[in-house]
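name: query_chain
kind: protein
chains: 1
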Amino acid sequence: MAKKIERVQTGVRLEKNVLKVMKALAAHLEIGLGDLIEGIVLHSFEGKAPFSPETLDFIETLRKAYGLELTAADSHKLEE
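structure:
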């Protein structure tokens, strides 16, 4: 059963290649970008992996296609 929620509009700034990969992944999964972000966050909050091995393989393909070289080790260390 679907749960009733309230969504709010937000302005989030993301690194451009991260956003490109996320948009392409959302399109591949046929979900909205907001739904993708919510899913990643909700899984992370519970210490669960948000993606299957097959989806991770697809993400790696997207990372290469869009030149995304950043990794988790780079988080919280980025400058504009």
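note: The chain has three helices and no strands.
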